[in-house]
Specification:
The complex is a heterodimer of chains A (about 260) and B (about 425). With about 260 residues, chain A is of the alpha/beta class. Chain A is about 40% helix and about 25% strand. Chain A folds into two domains: about 100 residues, 3-Layer(aba) Sandwich (Udp-n-acetylmuramoylalanyl-d-glutamate--2,6- Diaminopimelate Ligase, Chain: A, domain 1), CATH 3.40.1390; about 140 residues, Heat Shock Protein 90. In chain A, β4, α4 and β5 form a beta-alpha-beta unit. In chain A, α2 runs parallel beside α3 and α7 packs antiparallel against α8. Chain A starts with a helix and ends with a strand. In chain B, strands 6-5-8-9 form a four-stranded parallel β-sheet, sandwiched between helices. In chain B, α5 packs across α7. The chains are: A alpha/beta (about 260), B alpha/beta (about 425).
Chain lengths: ~260, ~425
């Protein structure tokens, strides 16, 4: 929605940013508590607030907002105007109070279900509660294990069953070691849904010629040096299979391997 | 919420908010608000790091006053083996026995007999053990608590055998009343501990309903009273007055001592909390599968690094080595009796150790994940220099406190400065 549209709905006067009223916003955030704005406000929003101080304007800027609407006809002090002008922020002032302003904006949304529909998040992404990426470098034995330890600490913080976390820790550690030993680098994606936890290891490297064989216990292509360090006992993939609920392996020789490991909650 | 007993408290009069405790705490249990420290009872594992870190004397150990034991008709003291390491090897251990009696104790019982018995028991246990490896030693109560709080899945790796101090007190309780013709409750048994964790393990044991001890003192408490007596006794001491049945052994007080006793092949001995946590992380990832036994002590160098010791841990270590050479005696145990007791389950933990996992966000799964995401978003806005000025040990801990509603963003001095200057 264009900020201009918001200005019309709220019958607001423009304090600053006359020239940039056409810029578009994605969300509306209403709050008088600036810590909440910083913590929970999303980028490209407009802020509705009764706090007519420079702090509100600075907070909006730090949260990457595009503008601020002051309610009940409030006008922030002079410094705010300069700050807004220097940082490409629109400042508006409306005579409505917070509740009425919010209602007005909400009603305008249902009346004309046009681009403003973006305000509602698409249903699909609600499924994935958490998604986080990590990187692993091949041959980096010094930090080997750090990604699985990080994943483990995230899951512990969330409060999953320790037994489940242990299985995930073992599987991700094995997969991480496989990357360190055999691949050039990899991206790891952790995703959590209400039903399962999935970890995908996608590496660039030599690939696995015979996946069936690699899944046999004791089969290894690790070098003697690696084995001397206690790795590569040929238990990696079998261990992942044993500890996970679903394991899918796609591999192309000379390109890389994609491991999708799933754990049911 | 006093669910968990802790053997230290913060004297708010003395606390001057230097944050040394907060920065040193391995479980990030301490926050400093308005210049005063406070710790989370759930997160504290009684490692005692804060007691060593505090320069202001605000971390106060809670021990029993010596006078408390006067109510008993017969007073027995069981000193931690580490007590001997606080004296150099020119002090014969028997001198320390005599000095302890000067403090009003009727009898001094060392851990050495129980240690020998448990060494034997441990070998028996290991020879038939089929469960997950590596096994983790049960001697350090701070380690047990660390596992309960942060590594609950590793509880099953802990060797479920009782420790020498408890076995010693149990034996005293069993045999002494009959020998002296006294009622069991007329005999008071006191332990002298080198760390707060052992005090907690006696006040609120993780593995049994009630400890076999009646009370506990710290080495620090005892040392200043003991030392003058040791000096006087030493002046006129003649080794010929040591009774023939006096036995002495101190090897388990040293890191690696247990391993030495059980003659394991694939073992590691680790000490110091951050090293111990690294090893526990590795065990959780199944990285140490070739290791059978882990002797882990949360204090650096083992119990001689405990915060209630008075001697420098490295000197104490040298003392142990010299004392072992000079004074150690061999101890005979009755293997048949041990076998019989073992089969009856005598040496095992009374109760199973229960997990104590931390609930960071006491909510359902979906809300917890939301909180984690909020935490990460807030963290991105923080300076990430872990200055600690906000009263939380790291920026990440601060972000976590914030989403739990325990702090304001303006408590971050750098963010606050940015907000007022930009």
């Amino acid at each position: 929605m264009e900020i201009k549209k918001i200005q019309e709905i709220l019958e607001a006067s423009v304090i600053s940013g006359e020239g940039i009223l056409e810029s578009k916003i994605e969300h509306i955030y209403a709050s008088d508590l600036m810590s909440d704005v910083l913590a929970f406000g999303k980028a490209d929003s407009i802020l509705l607030t009764g706090l007519a101080t420079q702090q509100a304007v600075i907070s909006a800027h730090m949260a990457e907002f595009k503008g601020v609407v002051f309610i009940r006809g409030k006008i922030p002090r002079d410094g705010s105007k300069d700050f807004a002008a220097n940082h490409q922020l629109v400042l508006l002032s409306t005579n409505f109070d917070m509740y009425d302003a919010c209602i007005k904006l909400e009603n305008s949304k249902t009346e004309k279900p046009s681009p403003s529909q973006k305000l509602i998040e698409p249903k699909k992404s609600e499924e994935i509660l958490l998604s986080q990426d990590f990187k692993i470098d091949g041959s980096d034995f010094t930090s080997a294990g750090s990604v699985s330890t990080e994943i483990k600490s995230i899951l512990k913080k969330i409060g999953f069953d320790p037994k489940l976390i242990r299985r995930i820790a073992i599987s991700t550690y094995e997969a991480e070691m496989n990357v360190v030993m055999h691949a050039d680098n990899a991206t790891v994606t952790l995703s959590v849904t209400p039903q399962y936890i999935q970890v995908i290891f996608e590496d660039y490297g030599k690939g696995i010629p015979d996946v069936e064989k690699a899944l046999q216990e004791g089969f290894t292509t690790a070098t003697d040096e690696m084995r001397a360090m206690g790795f590569g006992s040929g238990m990696g993939l079998p261990n992942i299979k044993r500890n996970s609920d679903e394991l899918e392996i796609e591999s192309e020789v000379g390109k890389g391997t994609k491991l999708q490991i799933k754990f049911l909650i | 919420m006093a669910r968990f007993y802790h053997a230290h408290r913060i004297d708010l009069q003395k606390c001057d908010g230097q944050m040394k405790c907060m920065r040193s705490c391995p479980t990030q249990a301490i926050r400093v608000k308005n210049g005063k420290a406070a710790f989370s009872e759930d997160l504290c594992v009684d490692c005692g790091t804060c007691l060593s870190a505090c320069q202001s004397g605000a971390m106060v150990p809670i021990t029993d006053p010596l006078e408390d034991f006067s109510k008993f008709k017969y007073k027995v003291v069981v000193p931690a083996a580490v007590l001997y390491s606080q004296f150099d090897s020119s002090v014969h251990p028997y001198i320390i026995h005599k000095a302890l009696k000067k403090l009003g104790f009727d009898e001094v019982v060392d851990l050495n007999f129980s240690t020998a018995v448990l060494g034997n028991v441990l070998m028996k246990y290991l020879s038939t053990y089929k469960g997950p490896l590596p096994l983790i030693s049960s001697h350090c109560p701070a380690l047990i608590r660390l596992i309960q709080v942060k590594y609950p899945e590793l509880i099953k790796h802990i060797i479920p055998l009782d420790v020498p101090r408890e076995l010693t007190a149990r034996e005293i309780r069993k045999t002494l009343p009959k020998k002296l013709g006294l009622k069991p409750e007329e005999i008071g048994i006191t332990y002298i501990a080198s760390c707060p964790a052992k005090i907690v393990s006696i006040k609120q044991p993780a593995e049994k309903t009630k400890s076999w001890f009646d009370g506990v003192l710290s080495i620090k408490d005892v040392f200043s009273l003991l030392y003058p007596h040791v000096l006087t006794i030493k002046e006129n001491f003649d080794e010929s007055e040591v009774p023939d049945d006096f036995s002495f052994s101190i090897s388990w007080a040293r890191l690696g001592g247990i391993i030495n006793a059980v003659k394991m092949e694939n073992w590691i001995a680790v000490s110091g909390l951050d090293h111990v946590m690294k090893v526990l992380d590795d065990i959780e990832n199944s990285r140490l599968r070739n290791i059978e036994f882990v002797e882990a002590m949360t204090c650096m160098l083992g119990c001689i690094g405990g915060p209630y010791n008075v001697e420098n841990a490295y000197i104490a270590r040298a003392n142990i080595i010299k004392q072992s050479i000079k004074h150690e005696t061999s101890i005979e145990v009755d293997e048949d009796e041990i076998s019989r007791n073992y089969d009856k389950g005598y040496y095992f933990f009374e109760n199973a150790i229960l997990p104590r996992p931390t609930k960071y966000f006491d909510t359902d799964l979906v809300t917890s994940i939301k909180r984690i995401k909020e935490r990460d978003r807030v963290y991105q806005k923080l300076p990430k220099i872990d200055c600690g000025c906000c009263g939380a040990p790291t920026c990440l801990a601060f972000a976590e406190d914030f989403v739990r509603g325990e702090t304001e963003l303006s408590d971050c001095v750098i963010l606050a400065q940015k907000l007022s200057n930009s």
